[in-house]
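Handout, page 2. Input:
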Amino acid sequence: MPRFTHLSNSVILSAIAVLILLPAIWHGVFDAMDLQFHLRWTEQFSEQFWNGDRYPRWLQNMNAGLGSPAFFFYAPAPFYFTSLFSNFFSAEARQWGQLSSSIVLAMIASGFTVYLWLQQITNRRTALIGSLLYMALPYHLGVNLYWRFAFAEYWALVWLPLILYFTHKLIHQSKSAIAGLSVSYALLIMTHLPTLVMFAPVSIAYVLINQVKAFWKVAISLTLAIALSAIYLLPALMTQDAISMNAIREGGYLYSNNFLFSRKFLPYHNPYFWMYLEGIAVGMIAIATCAFTVTAKQRESRFWFGVSIVSFLMTTPISKPIWAILPALQRIQFPWRFNAVLLVSVTALIAIALAKAKIFQSLRPLHLRKVSMTIGVLLTTGLLLTNIGAMKLRLKPIDDPQVIRAIQIHKETALEYRPKWVAPEFFTNEAIANLAKLPQNESTIRQWKPRELVFQSKTQTESWITLRQFYYPGWFAYTDSKKLDVQPAERTGLLQVKVPAGLHQVQVKLGQSSSELAGRLISAIALLIWGALICTLAKSRAIAFSLLGMLGLCAVFLYFSIW
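Output:
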């Protein structure tokens, strides 16, 4: 009977996850960089979801009720998980309650997925220690949560070890590997695309180095993953010309302005945050080196040390030529995001080194490997302690009046999601609030639902009626089965409908674009294929047919938006 059973390890992982998040949970809403975005998005997303909008792309109540296309582009997976907690809280506590519950779920889940993966390459005890370190190392905890509240990146760290778990299974001829790997990749795609761009080459390289004949299985898994996530991916990639994407391709968001160790402190760079990132990167590569010194003869260790070196270099100006020739890489925006890959590789190296720790019992005290292990432990301890600094600096109330006002009116402060017809001067807190108060003298609202509006117009002549909703491609209007013209109002970008003279009931809908329909169809077909793949693993025909039938219904509902 092993000392640490799976059950006891699960309890330990869950308890530590809650413990390290307790300061944030106890404090409530705090002054992290991106927390303001996710407070608004989670509230609007979950509200629409539970009111029947199963994929809330258009957030109707954002921007003081003028609407936002944020989830045509932003990955939805973390927000579905967050919505599960919505009904556990009162209306007053729901905003932070569901979000804080989600970060706890993600942290616990990341611990479990690392534990699953590390057991494949080490033993149960070191897998537990590695899991605890993965959760608590500062890029995961201090940066992605306490300092930035990078919600999507934080959730992405759940899926990286799961991908590696199924990649390892795939190499060792597991029958369930393709099905598991495809879902893991799909979850990552629907969580955070930049992390996929950084991490996919790592898992592919792992297969090529260990079992090149299995590459075709990886290719199938990735293809199926892309198809499964097409419901999100196609609209996100094909409709970007409707928003202000240039806002994240310049200044503080331009990749060339965000290399570590460049000493390029621009006005929008927080020097403390910058030094924190640099310290984390140096600390992690130092720990990786110490761990590798102990286990250099192991193939697994050599691979992960190589990943560590490459990941570290990708955060520095040395890698500029690579970034310059790869446009997909440039969309990552921040080279220091490669710290996420470095986090995974360092966790692997630490676990491998700890699994071999018994060799030190017979070594002299000053042996190089024992010194390396000691230094590595000290460095790891030092890095863990830096989380306290991040908590101290960021765990404070939001005190910026503009941010507070934006939260109150649900202003979309992610500027790239400004519909391009809205002039920048009309996308400020004050302007948004004023637009939301515009009178609608010639119309009476009968229905105001996401993507579906109904109003009664009464005009003496044919007129343009301006609605308190932003224009977006796909809006169409009709009355008495007659299609009406729609257009964006000049400068304000509000939706205008041309109504005939007289009394009319007008229906206005935001229809599904061709990319939305194609994405739904592809995902539905992929779901059936994935279901058929699962059914081949079922132990009986009855189970197989039941599974396939249920997945078939899900696919139909997915396509026709009934589910």
